[in-house]
Structure formats: structure tokens, C-alpha cells
Design brief:
This protein is of the alpha+beta class. The protein is built from seven helices and five strands; from the N terminus they run ααααββαβαββα. Strands 2-1-5-4-3 form a five-stranded mixed beta sheet.
Length: 239
């Protein structure tokens, strides 16, 4: 080696026979790694009139499958991120509710702070007006008897809808803004009137029937328990 010269770098090369031998030894490689097909330059084949090139058709289908798989993977990742974000927001809502130092503040947090934390346009707490609540609170919306069952289509515990004409009895002056809504039944106590917690958004895709409901129902269960504590109401007897 000449003085001052750099040592030669070892270059790893794979020749045609090695590639062919690898494919012979691993006949399922391209099926299991279909993305490799996108790097291939395939020759056009002249097969004559009326003859279909099945090779090109197969390659095209495999490439489409790779693209579809990538789309599904991206969708799953996006949904996972959305779920984590929603879970974190619900946890923050629960902690905020637990900070209440009075019943009035609890209702104010539920109807004002939760809207900000959940990034919705309106949150309302509606109660049928039979006088069962002994503490008058301005933030509570009073509804006539039977209104909760009507809003929840009978005995459903939660309804999520999009493209709605929101009920002013639930959302008051914000009803004209609401394009999607979630309505959750509140089973507070046998000594309390029927009640509901409603979330409304001007985004028509914010709530829809295909969404999971566990987190919103969990938030509603927490609010139920806190209302019972502040008003010293008994829990319903278990069936």
C-alpha cells in the first residue's frame, strides 16, 4: 500500500445468481413483502390480440393491496391518537369536577368548564322540574315531565347524532349552532328527578352513531355520584 493512501472500502455486491437463488429458496418472499414490487421495473410483454397478461394483473393487485394496507395502518394510528387525546381530556374533566367546593360550583364546572376542556360548543345539565332538587341553581335547565325519556328515545342511556336540529329546551340559545350532539342519561337517585347531560358541537362530525360511548358514560357516572354526595341523596337499590 502506498504511503498516505486510504485503505480500500469493502464493497458488498449481490449478483444475479444470488438473487435468483434467494428467490428459489424463499418462494413466498414477494407475497409476504409485496412492497418490494413497487421497486421493480417490469417489462411489457407482447402476447398478441385477445391475450391477457396475468402477470401484470397480479402485480397491479398486489400493489393495490399494499396501498390499502398502508391506508388502514394510517387510519388505525390516527384513531389511536384520537382515543388517547379523548381519554386525557375526560380524565382532566373528572379532576376538575372533583375540585368543586359546592353543589353550585359543581354544576358550573359541568356546564362551563367541561365545554372548554372537551372543545365543544355547549354542555348542559337538564332536569325534569318536579321540585326534587332542594337547591336552586341557575345553570340547571328545567324540563317538563317526560322530556328526558323523549330526548333519549325511551330508555336508551346515550344517543350520539350528527346533522341534527338541536332542541332549544336542551341547548337554549346555542341550539341554532349545534350540528351534532351527545345526550347521556343521568341516573342520580330514586329521590331525584330524571336528568340528562348534553354535549353539542357546531362540527357535524364531532358526534355520530359510530363512536364509542364508554368515556362519555364514565364522565356521566362520575357526575351522578358527585351530585348524590353534594345533595346527600341515596343511591338507587341494585336489582
Amino acid at each position: 500500500m502506498a504511503k498516505g493512501s486510504e485503505p480500500a472500502q469493502a464493497v458488498s455486491t449481490v449478483d444475479k445468481e444470488q438473487v435468483l437463488q434467494f428467490l428459489r429458496d424463499n418462494p413466498g418472499f414477494l407475497l409476504e413483502n409485496a412492497e418490494a414490487l413497487s421497486a421493480l421495473a417490469l417489462p411489457e410483454r407482447e402476447l398478441g390480440d385477445g391475450v391477457i397478461d396475468l402477470q401484470q394483473a397480479l402485480i397491479g393487485r398486489l400493489r393495490e393491496k399494499v396501498e390499502q394496507t398502508e391506508d388502514v395502518a394510517r387510519l388505525l394510528i390516527d384513531n389511536s391518537r384520537d382515543n388517547l387525546s379523548t381519554t386525557a381530556r375526560i380524565h382532566e374533566c373528572v379532576l376538575k369536577l372533583l375540585d368543586a367546593t359546592s353543589f353550585e360550583q359543581l354544576i358550573e364546572i359541568a356546564t362551563v368548564d367541561l365545554a372548554v376542556l372537551l372543545d365543544v360548543d355547549a354542555v348542559t345539565l337538564c332536569v325534569e322540574s318536579n321540585g326534587a332538587f332542594g337547591v336552586p341553581v341557575q345553570s340547571l335547565r328545567l324540563m317538563p315531565e317526560g322530556a328526558v325519556a323523549s330526548a333519549l328515545r325511551g330508555r336508551q342511556s346515550i344517543i350520539l347524532e350528527q346533522d341534527v336540529s338541536a332542541d332549544p329546551a336542551i341547548f337554549a340559545s346555542a341550539a341554532s349552532l349545534i350540528a351534532s350532539q351527545a345526550i347521556v342519561r343521568l341516573d342520580i337517585s330514586a329521590e331525584a328527578p330524571p336528568a340528562l347531560l348534553a354535549f353539542g358541537s357546531r362540527d357535524r362530525a364531532r358526534f355520530h352513531s359510530g363512536q364509542a360511548t364508554e368515556l362519555l358514560q364514565f364522565l356521566a357516572r362520575v357526575l351522578e355520584k358527585l351530585i348524590r354526595v353534594w345533595l346527600d341523596l341515596p343511591e338507587d337499590d341494585e336489582d
